[in-house]
């Protein structure tokens, strides 16, 4: 009699597990969506910086900095260089645990014709041959260098 009860209880447990399995599978298989309006618009800031004819014309009161930087850093501009520094968090944010690698990935994603020629743990370097308003290739390329600038700090230097 006890053997039959054990078999029935095991069968009931298996039946319950099989009933829950499809629901659990669907919950895990359903992709999570991130909508564009929920994400910081890094590309808009980076493209505005690169497209500026003179970096000194960029608004000093509202510096263009990559996501995660507003209100936490400073930018300096001259005719041919735009230099920003800000505090970054190195905690895991669900995407990349290293802000320098994340910034490098953002730069690569924003500019389809970028050349990524340096990728180290402390430095990312890119060269962009930007087009002017007429669609012709600009004579001078734009170099973007992202580096670690001290403890918990990043630096982005854009030079034309």
Gist of the model:
The protein has 160 residues and is an alpha+beta fold. It has helices at residues 2-29, 42-51, 99-110; strands at 73-77, 81-87, 115-119, 123-128, 142-148, 153-159.
Q: What can you tell me about this protein's structure?
A:
There is one protein chain. Residues 17-40 have low confidence and may be disordered. The chain is globular. With 160 residues, it is an alpha+beta fold. The chain has a six-stranded antiparallel beta sheet with strand order 1-2-6-5-4-3, with helices on one face. It has helices at residues 2-29, 42-51, 99-110, and strands spanning 73-77, 81-87, 115-119, 123-128, 142-148, 153-159. 31% of the residues lie in helices and 23% in strands. The termini are far apart. It comes from Caballeronia arationis.
Specify the biggest β-sheet: 6 strands, antiparallel
Number of helices: 3
Which class best fits the helix and strand makeup? alpha+beta
Shape descriptor: globular
Estimate nothing, just give the exact number of structural domains. 2
Mean pLDDT: 72
The share of residues in helices is 25-40%
Cα-to-Cα separation, first versus last residue? 86 Å
| Biggest β-sheet: strands ordered side by side in the sheet | 1-2-6-5-4-3
- Could you name the ranges where pLDDT drops below 50 across 5 or more consecutive residues? 17-40
Strand-and-helix sequence, N→C? HHEEHEEEE
Query: How big a fraction of the residues is strand?
Result: 15-25%
Number of DSSP E strands: 6
Cα gyration radius (Å): 25 Å
Signal peptide: 1-36
Protein name: Lipoprotein
Keywords: Signal
